[in-house]
Amino acid sequence: MGARMELGIAGKRALVTASSKGLGRGCAEALARAGVDLVLNARGAEALETTAEALRAYGVSVTAVAADIVTEDGRARVLEAAGAVDILVTNAGGPPPGMWSDWERDDFIRALDGNMLAPIALMKALLPGMMARGWGRVVNITSQSVKSPIAVLGLSNAARAGLTGYVAGTSRQVAPSGVTINNLLPGIHATDRATSLDSGVAEREGIPIEQARANRCETIPARRYGTAEEFGATCAFLCSQHAGFIVGQNILLDGGAVNATL
C-alpha cells in the first residue's frame, strides 16, 4: 500500500472569489483541507465572515475581503489584501436569464464585466508573480453552457465562451513558466442557486419544488445533483502538484448531463 495521496500544496496561498457559499466555498474548503492559506472574497460581509471563521478550523490563515470584484475599486482592495498568491480560483454568479430580443449593449457589457473581464483582470494581475516564482494554478469556474448552450442564458453563454477563448490561448503562453490555467464547468449542484432555479420551475409549472427537483434529476445520467464538496475536491486536484500537465482544459462536472463524445 502506498501513502495516501497528498496534494502537495500545503503552505501555498490562494485567492478564491465568490467564496462565501456554494461552489466557491466548496473550492475554498477543499483547499483549506489541503493546508492552503486563503484570501476569500464575496460581496456579503456577514456570510463571508461566517465562512472564513469555519475554514480557520483547518489551521490555515484566512483573510476575508468583502468587496465587489467586478468593480475596479473592489478588485484593487482584494488584490492588495491578497498580495502574492500561488493559486487563483475565479467564480461569479451568472447574469439574469431572458430572450435574445431582450438584451441591449449595456446588458452585454455588464455580463462581460462579471463573467469575462473580471477574471481576466485578476489573471493579468496575478499571473506575472506566479510566472516569476515558477509555479501557479488558475481555475475558472465557468458553466456547462460553454459546451452545451442554455438558450435562456444567452448573456452567460456569450461572456463565459469569451473567457474560455481567452484561457485557451493564454494558458499555453504561461505553461512554460510552470503555471496552469483550466476551467471547471459545473452542471446543476445542490446549492442556493439550484434551489432558486427549482423554485422558479415549481412556480411556473404549479408543482412542488421536490417534484421540480426530481424532474431535473431525470435529465442527469447520475440521477442526482452534484455536491459542493465533490466540486471543491476536483478544483483542489487541479490546483495540486499532480496537475501540472493539465493545461487549458474545460472539465465538465455535470453528472453526464451534456450528451457529447468529446
User: What is the terminal-to-terminal distance?
Assistant: 34 Å
Question: Radius of gyration, rounded?
Answer: 18 Å
Task: Please state roughly what percent of the residues sit in beta strands, choosing from under 5%, 5-15%, 15-25%, 25-35%, 35-45% or over 45%.
Answer: 5-15%
Class per helix and strand makeup: alpha/beta
From N to C, what is the helix and strand string? EHEHEHEHEHEHHHE
- What average pLDDT do the residues reach? 96
* Count of discrete alpha- or pi-helical segments spanning 4 or more residues: 8
* Low-confidence sequence ranges: none
Q: What's the overall geometry?
A: globular
- Multimeric organization: single chain
